[in-house]
Amino acid sequence: MRLDPKHDIYPPHRMAHLPRDHRGFLVPKFVWRKDDGTYDFRVVQPDWLMHCIRYKTCWLCGERLGRNLCFVIGPMCALNRASGEPPNHLECSRYAVRVCPFMIRPRMRRNEKGLDEIDGSVNPMGLNRNPGAAGIYVTGSYKWMSDVKVIRMGPPDRIEWWCEGRAATRAEVEHSIETGLPLLRAEEEGPAAVAELQRSYDAIKPFLPAS
């Protein structure tokens, strides 16, 4: 069965058993189920983040992970090697970047109506923008930084770049990075912060799409 009734994109077998909302959209494991039985895709189920970290399970399907840990992130998170969400299976990640409305529609903005009354935003540490391009950051390790509640991803083995539900071009990823850099405000933190940001940018360049 499809996640999006408007597209012939089928979920991987690990996600096929998940429930669907009233529109026919597949509901990933992290999504909050409200008391009235409906789902809010912007909000994480209580304790789901720590469950995934503790038991090494996929953020999207809930099944056990293997060696390849795949984070669906924006380019700025790739630079910082930081994520607010635990990893997924590769096939679950590829499904997400092809069907998630926020990722396949670069001009779409987050609907934050009512979120100030709820504790549990899906991306508590992300920049308040749609990056336009998304990366599937594949690594073999990560560390949960409990003091700041952020995941520090290990060095990338590879990064797949996506935009509008398809493979992203180098120009699209570079544009996302260039428009996101000013939001990190490194210049306000001094020359050392600027130099560190440049090193991070240089380190990620070999993983950008070919020209």
Short description:
The protein is 27% helix and 19% strand. With 211 residues, it is of the alpha+beta class.
Number of extended strands: 9
- The assigned structural class equals alpha+beta
Q: What value does the average pLDDT take?
A: 85
Coarse shape: globular
Helix and strand pattern:
EEHEHEHHEEEEEHHH
The termini sit apart by 36 Å
Can you walk me through this structure?
The protein has 211 residues and is of the alpha+beta class. The chain has a domain of 141 residues. It is built from seven helices and nine strands, in the order ββαβαβααβββββααα. The strands form three sheets. Strands 3-5-8-9 form a four-stranded antiparallel β-sheet. The chain has a three-stranded antiparallel β-sheet with strand order 4-7-6. A hairpin with a 5-residue loop joins strand 1 and strand 2. It is globular, with a radius of gyration of 17 Å. About 3% of the residues have low confidence.
